[in-house]
Structures are given as structure tokens and as C-alpha cells.
Amino acid sequence: MIPDYLIISSGGRDYPFGGKSRFSLLAENGFGLPPIRRSEESGPYQHGTTLLDFRLQSRTIDLVFTAKAHTRAEHYQNRDDLMKIFRPSNTAITLRYLFNDIERDIQAYYSDGLNFDINFLTDRSQTMKYTVRLTCPDPTWYDPISRGLLWENLVDSSVLTDWVLPFSFPMTLGGSAFSRKKSLTYTGTWRTFPTITVTGPYENFSITNLSTNEKIGLDYDIAAGEVLTISLEYGRKTVKNQDDTDLSGTVTSDSNLTIFHIAPEDEVPGGLNEFELAGTGVSPASKVSLSFYPRYLGI
Q: Is 1 helix (H, G, I), strand (E, B) or coil?
């Protein structure tokens, strides 16, 4: 069975490829493991080299497909639509792979292929075959359905036993330090950088991935009703509240903001990532969420 594909243009419009659509995919190239670059060193009198590390390189994808048409007008309409789908832009298109219950996305940019070369003496059919080349600076695929953890009820129930209702909110309880642990089994094959959202009140916030020994802490008192978001996507790491106030300067010096991630099974046994949340000054309204998209080296 041939999988279906969906291309979401830089303008946000969906274009089906495959199935009963007019664009029928014939071949795909570049969906597997991405190319890598290794760093190595060689010492005096050493035979060979010592491998130090590696980095994934950008991925090239080729899509070979036909554009069905019965008339010359339909032929040129296909050409016009293909230029809309793949038009050069600094905004990525999304290539979505659909097969049974599997969905995988990758961000891509048009590179080459739509020259629309045609020989009117030999190309009698209005249905034409094309090859489009896409460049993917981030070579990893991802599941477009977000996963995550949620911490609620951060105030120990024993703290509330001496209170008599009614009392007014917002109210800060839990002045002493607390910690809560949760874990998840990560099924992706490549590390992913999560987004952490904290709803105040919350003081001395910290979260630690105990499996990777990476931590993020804040020297900042999050007010009641304030929502602070820590975005950890590579190249776009931010710490802001709902008013778009930059709070990156409040990150503690012992934090691992640049590398904090969720690890696959080749890095932590079984892909088990255990997180510890800590802090003070919370109330029943306080909560923390950690969300992410599983990432994969290939399809």
C-alpha cells in the first residue's frame, strides 16, 4: 500500500498528495536516516583518529509525482497550484506522511525541480511527471500530536485541613519547599526539546530531568494568575510571560537551559525520563505543564 501525503503550504493551505488526489506520488527519496558529520581528533603517534561526537546534517527530500490533467487548461492550473504550494519562502512548508495510524511531519523548503520543461512535439499527454527537491534544515521528523505531563494540586492536602471555608482567592499556601516527581517513557528516536508552562503563584521554580541530570531554575516570583512559558526549541529558546515580558535574565546560573531535553532510549534506559518539580509559594491554582512532540530520525 502506498502511503498518503499532505503538504501544508507556507500560506497554511492543505494539498493532498496520493490517494485520489490529482497529485499522485510515484517515488520518495531521503526519508530514512539523515546524513551526519563526525568530529574527530588525532594525537601524536596515533594511528587513525579518535571519534569525539557527531551532528545531524540537513536533509534533502525528493518527491516524484504526476499531476493529472485532461485539458491544457487543467495542465496550467496544476502548474499554477504547484508554484503556490512550493513557492520559495523563508516560511517552511510542512510535509506530512500518513500511513495507517502513523503521522509524521517535517519542515521543508523548496530547493529545485519545478522548471516545467516540456516538449510539445513529444509530450502529448496533459498529465505530467515532476520531481521536486526539498531541503530540511532540521532533518528530524516529528509526531504532530503533542504529548506531555501535568502537575496540579501542588499544595499538600494536609496544609488545608486547618482551614475553614469560605476564604478568599487568590491565596498563597505551601510556603515551605516541596517536590513532585513524574516520569514518562519517550518513544521517539531523537531527543526533543519541550515547552514548560508555569501558572502562578509560584516561587523558586525548578524542574530537573533526573534521567539526564539537567535542570532549569528561576530566580523569579511568579504572581497569581501570571503564566510563564519556557520554550526550549533549538535556536528559539525564550522565557516569557503572557505579556511577552522577557524573563530570560531570571534563569539561575546552575540551569541547563541550552541543552534541557527529553532523551530517547539510546541515551536513557528504556526511554524513561523522570522529572522532579520543586519550589515554594504555591496555591491550589498553581500548575505546571511540560509538552513536547516526539521526534524521529527517519521513516
A: coil
Q: What share of the chain is helix, strand, coil (3-state, %, to 5)?
A: 10, 45, 50
CA distances from 248 to 59, 100, 141, 253, 258 (A): 32, 42, 29, 11, 12
Using CA atoms, how far apart are residues 272 and 43, in angstroms rounded to an integer?
A: 37
pLDDT along the chain (299 residues), means of 10: 82 84 89 96 94 96 91 90 92 92 94 84 74 96 96 69 41 65 97 97 97 97 97 94 97 96 97 97 95 97
Give me the phi and psi of 83, to 5 degrees please. Answer: -70, -30
The pLDDT score that the predictor gives to residue 175 is 56
Give the HSE-up count for residue 212: Cα atoms under 13 Å, Cβ half-sphere. Answer: 27
| Rounded Cα–Cα distance for residues 38 and 183 (Å) | 32
Q: Tell me which H or E stretch contains 82.
A: helix 72-86
Residue 285 lies in domain: 147-296
Distance CA 81, CA 40 (A): 47
Same domain for 127 and 21?
A: yes
Q: What angle do CA 193, 197, 203 make, to 5 degrees?
A: 120
Strand pairing of 36-41 and 141-142? unpaired
Residue 27 pairs with which residues in a beta bridge? 64
Choose among 258, 199, 184, 260: nearest CA to 229: 199
- 92 vs 137: CA distance, rounded Å: 10
Cell 531527543: give the residue. Answer: 191
Is 126 buried (19+), middle (13-18) or exposed (0-12) by CB count in 10 A? middle
Distance CA 118, CA 132 (A): 16
How many domains does the chain divide into?
Answer: 2
Instruction: Return the closest-CA partner of residue 13 out of 82, 68, 59, 103.
Output: 82
Q: Which grid cell is 262?
A: 527529553
Same domain, 218 and 187: yes
